[in-house]
Write a structure and sequence with these properties.
The structure is a single chain. This protein is an alpha/beta fold. It has helices spanning 2-8, 30-51, 76-86, 95-106; strands at residues 12-19, 55-62, 117-120. 20% of the residues are buried.
Length: 128
Amino acid sequence: EAAKLMERNGGGKIVGISSLGSIRYLENYTAVGVSKAALEALTRYLAVELSKMNICVNAVSGGVIDTDALKSFPNREEMLAEAALQTPAGRMVEVEDMVNTIMFLLSDESSMIRGQTLIVDGGISLLV
């Protein structure tokens, strides 16, 4: 339904939110990880199918971010400690890092990026 509205308005942008659990095993993350992997596959398919309507579809995958969602994980403290020590950028990913990437994907400058999942993790996924 959103695509129909976007098409009537000349196109648009869709950005899904994923996480590293879509591409690697994370303890206590099975259901979420599988759903994020499905989101990334859907992003690729919709990017092709909706492109003819001038709709760009992409996703952003974040590293460990200290949000309320993390409070439901029994290994929260361990995840935060590992991310703080291991992230090559020297700091953990913050919400603003995700927002900046999403805003870029929503801008006109990203019109030729389609069907991609941009990883915003300070480089930690390169170590695994």
